[in-house]
Fold this sequence. Notes:
This protein is of the alpha+beta class. It is built from 11 helices and 21 strands. It has helices at 14-26, 64-82, 99-114, 125-131, 151-164, 212-218, 294-301, 304-312, 314-325, 327-335, 386-400; strands at residues 5-10, 30-35, 52-53, 87-88, 92-96, 121-123, 139-143, 147-149, 168-170, 175-180, 185-190, 196-201, 203-206, 226-237, 248-251, 264-266, 272-274, 279-280, 346-358, 369-373, 376-381.
Amino acid sequence: MxxxxxxxxxxxxxxxxxxxxxxxxxxxxTRVTVLEKEDRVAAHQxxxxxxxxxxxxxxxxxxxxxxxxxxxxxxxxxxxxEHELPYRAVGKVLVAxxxxxxxxxxxxxxHAKDNGVPGVTRLGPAGLREIxxxxxxxxxxxxxxxxxxxxxxVAEQLADDVRRSGGRVLLNTPVLDLxxxxxxxxxLTGEVEGERTIHRFDxxxxxxxxxxxxxxxxxxxxxxxxxxPFRGQYHELVPDRRHLVNGLVYPVPDPRYPFLxxxxxxxxxxxxxxxxxxxxxxxxxxxxxxxxxxxxxARTLGWPGTWRLARRHWTVGAREMLxxxxxxxxxxxxxxxxxxxxxxxxxxxxAGVRAQALGRxxxxxxxxxxxxxxxxxxxxxxxxxAATSSxxxxxxxxxxxxxxx
Length: 405
């Protein structure tokens, strides 16, 4: 008789929960335990984002992002329908402000078609106004299948699926240490000065988000890349100005720079958000400008890649800091997409923090990255579109790393 396999997942964000569900439902003889330090699921990136279900416009064809995003969209849409979770294909337009932007649309359109994104069309100024009447640009690209959902609700449902399938989701269970030998992995949880518990597993998967590199190091992984936190400030349009945006309005990304810039997104519950920008956070979970963790900030500043990135993009960094500090400047960035917006139309909204893997050479890790260290699988980089791709990432991890064997 086959013995029960015990697999642990560290992190109850949407990727960790999707993996736990995949293992609990589809791998007979496996018992799954999710370890989460917070008192709720989706406490960080999974519950603090724009809610966009990405169609796969930008990603390099053949990359994990492209492959898993396209697979993930279909899985997520079906999952939301099955569980009566919100899912609306509101569409997205990329707005070209000038000729340089318009030229970059060609590469994006080619990537979108290579990735199999349905219905993508080029737009002139009149076509832009038909879809988003308050935008202004010389050209655009329309992705009608790009959608929105509530990722917190999706995460809660995934956690319920895990529990109903015999798995466990242990909240308020911070991981202090882990060690492995040839036969098992031991994970120490609890408070530094309080009661501690040892959990024993056959395999562990680290889906730690903002803490992923700290946890990976405990598994014996390299310090390269380092997880660097970038705080993204959002503003919300006041209710009587929400009509200015029908769906999702984005600038054309500039490949010279690491972040997209301010964009406008309608949420499933009716709000319209502007943002986020991106500034270096002074704590791993630093959602407010005044949040400060000296040890975590020192780790970020002590990483050679941080300074190499800063030297390469210091002008963009200075601009992002100014955008974060001033509602008027923030509004000026949003006005590049929707000229009718004024500072008075925006009110501050809760910020998010993006966990971004940064190499020693100062280059941001673009694709998803997963590493295998003995009995521990470490998800080292899973930024956007990880939420969109979460169910496909779960399939990939289960098959590629032998978790279902």
